[in-house]
Design goal:
Layout: E1 2-7, H1 12-24, E2 28-34, E3 54-58, H2 64-73, E4 78-81, H3 88-93, H4 96-115, E5 120-126, H5 150-169, E6 173-178, E7 181-182, H6 191-200, E8 205-208, E9 214-215, E10 218-219, H7 220-233, E11 239-242, E12 248-249, H8 250-261, E13 268-271, H9 286-290, H10 299-312, H11 314-321, H12 325-338, E14 341-342
Parallel strand pairs: 1-2, 1-4, 2-3, 4-5, 5-6, 6-11, 7-10, 8-13
Antiparallel strand pairs: 9-12, 13-14
Helix pairs in contact: 1-7, 2-4, 4-5, 6-8, 6-10, 8-10
The structure holds nicotinamide-adenine-dinucleotide and thymidine-5'-diphosphate (TYD).
Length: about 350
């Protein structure tokens, strides 16, 4: 029996991972530990709520005693840490919570993992720690970390702490660095769910700059499978990139999305770019494929599947978009959209 503490498990990828674990491993108990920030949502965990192998604890990863109490109460042997502030644009507006959660919070979790002698501490990281990747290159796990946004810098800092705890204290750690995930339950501030839900409502899609930036959009279920594989077969002390190996321009992603939702390209608005916007991410995924994983979905399939999920699950996103989100949207996009030119 494995008892896994999934920190940040009420968010997008964390909740998908909880459903994945409960479905795939009958001998596994899952405890979600989550602060429920604006991005945490118990609706994401609804399919698990009556499962006797699932429990929820509301808490902050920065509070060591609270984390320790959860570990003790549930006899935890493994922590998988998804908890973070995750949106680059919000990190530009106000980095404080990013540093607090990813740097101090990760440190706190590592201390608890050490105190209880856990079997594994797994950190969920991102391809953004490598910074902008020039054409012709794909980031390897050994590449230097050159993060360029407060979000990416907070995540890179966490990776450094995790590695330091492995080297210094022998803590059994692993790290996965995922590319852009898409799929069910992603908060509609991120590009794909924002564009899908705007398109459904025939609202403009605010595309930063020329829209030719490149991301490796991957299906969240594929990422969950890779994390699980690293937990079971990954080498302690190692880091694994998880992506598709295929980069997609934002405008191409929008094309698939609008086509799936039967909406016109005329919804596109080119708006003022994000400061320091990384133009390209690209991962070398040789190390994780050598472990026996490959993505089950192409980026095209992932984008279309995601668009259809938002079309079919308005119950999930309409209440989010009608709340605090409105002020965020106005602050982030109001002026930009009022001064934007439509696609010609
Ligand atoms: P999300 O924003 O949807 O969810 C984050 C979750 O963490 C929320 O449930 C929130 O309540 C919780 N949380 C935040 N601060 C907390 C704290 N101090 N204590 C406890 N819980 C806290 O994020 P996501 O998109 O699911 O990303 C999950 C992880 O994966 C993050 O670490 C992120 O950096 C990483 N990641 C995300 C992507 C992506 O495309 N979304 C890609 C690669 C890596
Ligand atoms: P996002 O989902 O914020 O992820 P990332 O962390 O990779 O920046 O954005 C994905 C891509 O879409 C990125 O190149 C920025 C771009 N983008 C827009 O063009 N408009 C938007 O409103 C948003 C949120 C993102």
């Amino acid at each position: 029996m494995k008892n896994i503490l999934v920190t940040g498990g009420a968010g997008f990828i964390g909740s998908n991972f909880v459903h994945y674990l409960l479905a795939q491993h009958e001998a596994c108990r899952v405890v979600v530990y989550d602060k429920l920030t604006y991005a945490g949502n118990l609706d994401n965990l609804r399919p698990a709520q009556d499962n006797p192998r699932y429990a929820f604890v509301r808490g902050d990863i920065c509070r060591r005693e609270d984390v320790a109490a959860a570990v003790r109460a549930h006899n935890i042997d493994t922590i998988v840490n998804f908890a973070a502030e995750t949106h680059v644009d919000r990190s530009i507006m106000d980095p404080d919570a990013f540093i607090q959660t990813s740097v101090y919070g990760t440190y706190t979790l590592l201390e608890v993992a050490r105190e209880f002698g856990l079997e594994r501490y797994h950190q969920i990281s991102t391809d953004e720690v490598y910074g902008h990747v020039p054409a012709g290159h794909s980031s390897k796990e050994s590449d230097p970390l050159i993060p360029r946004s407060p979000y990416a810098a907070s995540k890179a800092s966490a990776d450094l702490l995790v590695n330091a705890y492995h080297v210094t204290y022998g803590l059994p750690t692993t790290i996965t660095r995922g590319s852009n995930n898409i799929g069910p339950y992603q908060y509609p501030e991120k590009a794909v769910p924002l564009f899908a839900t705007n398109a459904i409502d025939r609202l403009p899609l605010p595309v930063y700059g020329d829209g030719r930036q490149m991301r490796e959009y991957q299906y969240v279920g594929d990422h969950c499978e890779a994390i699980d594989l690293v937990l079971r077969r990954g080498q302690v002390g190692e880091t694994y990139n998880v992506g598709t190996g295929v980069e997609v321009e934002n405008l191409a992603m929008i094309d698939i999305l609008l086509d799936t939702l039967d909406r016109p390209l005329s919804l596109i608005r080119h708006v003022t770019d994000r400061p320091g916007h990384d133009r390209r991410y690209s991962l070398d995924i040789g190390k994780i494929t050598a472990l026996g994983w490959e993505p089950a979905h192409t980026p095209e399939e992932a984008i279309a599947l995601t668009a259809r999920w938002y079309r079919d699950n308005e119950w999930w996103w309409r209440k989010i978009k009608s709340g605090e989100f409105q002020q965020y949207y106005e602050a982030q996009y109001g002026e930009r959209l009022r001064t934007a030119a439509p696609l010609n």
